[in-house]
């Protein structure tokens, strides 16, 4: 089943940051689509919840040196 999630992303300071995160997220197994917006410091993702999870996506963003939190 595909699930959608919006995240606040912390620590992005230039457009290359958002592009970098977006590329890495879109390569993850189970990712359907990921878009990262620098101006709003947020990300929207759609993923196959049988393969991926919110925790894995947030961990990946943290691995890149940023932080993220699911919007509630
Ligand atoms: Mo821009 Mo982001 O030089 O880590 S890529 S600040």
TrEMBL record:
Segments forming domain HMA: 3-69
Localisation per UniProt entry: Cell membrane
Function: Involved in copper export.
Family note: Belongs to the cation transport ATPase (P-type) (TC 3.A.3) family. Type IB subfamily.
Descriptive protein name: Copper-exporting P-type ATPase
Organism (species): Mesobacillus selenatarsenatis (strain DSM 18680 / JCM 14380 / FERM P-15431 / SF-1)
